[in-house]
Amino acid sequence: MRLAARLALIALSALALAACAPAPIYQPAPGTLTALPYQVAQTPERYAGGAVIWGGRVVKVDNLADHSEIEILAYPLDKSQRPKRNDSGAGRFIAVMRGYVEPLDYPPGALITVNGRLAGSRAGKVGEASYVFPLVEVAQSHVWTERELGQGGSNVHVGVGVGVIR
Fold first, then answer.
1. pLDDT tens digits, 5-46
2. Which residue pairs from 125-132 have beta carbons closer than 8 angstroms and sit at least 24 positions apart in sequence?
3. I need a labelling partner for 44 at 20 to 30 A (CA). Which of 36, 138, 142, 152 fits?
4. Which positions make up the signal peptide (predicted)?
């Protein structure tokens, strides 16, 4: 009987920890691509029109006559579709949004997740280096707050030694 009680406690604990992680913000469409921006940049014709959910750090916003473009340094996403800000970059892409986008709503350095479709690519530059940017026609976007980024992480830490709480 003790073994059954322990197994039940372990199962409930695992369930409680899993419940801490926020759900993904966008429902992936059937056939949503798992390719990263740097992979799409190498052979953009292979991925034309594919649905993507990508995220990363805002580099800059350009407002044009009828649309806005947000250059984003891509990061892999966690299970909640939050960019993993401590991960290495996965290339760059341009999020194309209809109309005017207020640059203050998408400040440089902000973390963002977008949901949309690939709409080709464009040659450009990163500094002096030539670069191919995949273009994403954005259906939805979400700029993450520090509070949202902190949610869902475990506050339980086990270890030996001295720790500092930030």
1. 565 555 555 444 444 556 788 888 888 998 999 999 999 999
2. 126/92, 131/41, 131/92, 132/41, 132/42, 132/44
3. 142
4. 1-18
How many whole angstroms separate alpha carbon 110 and alpha carbon 37?
Answer: 18
Around Cβ 33, how many Cβ atoms within 10 Å? 18
Provide the 10 A C-beta neighbour count for residue 112.
20
Share of the chain above pLDDT 70, in %: 78
117 phi and psi angles, rounded to 5 deg: -125, 145
Give the count of domains, the chain: 1
Domain of residue 45, CATH code: 2.40.50.140
Q: Say whether 70 sits in a helix, a strand or coil.
A: strand
User: Which pTM value belongs to this model?
Assistant: 0.77
Judged by DSSP in three states, 123 sits in strand
Domain region containing 55: 31-150
Give whole-number Cα distances, 31 to 52, 72, 81, 82, 116, in Å. Answer: 9, 23, 17, 20, 12
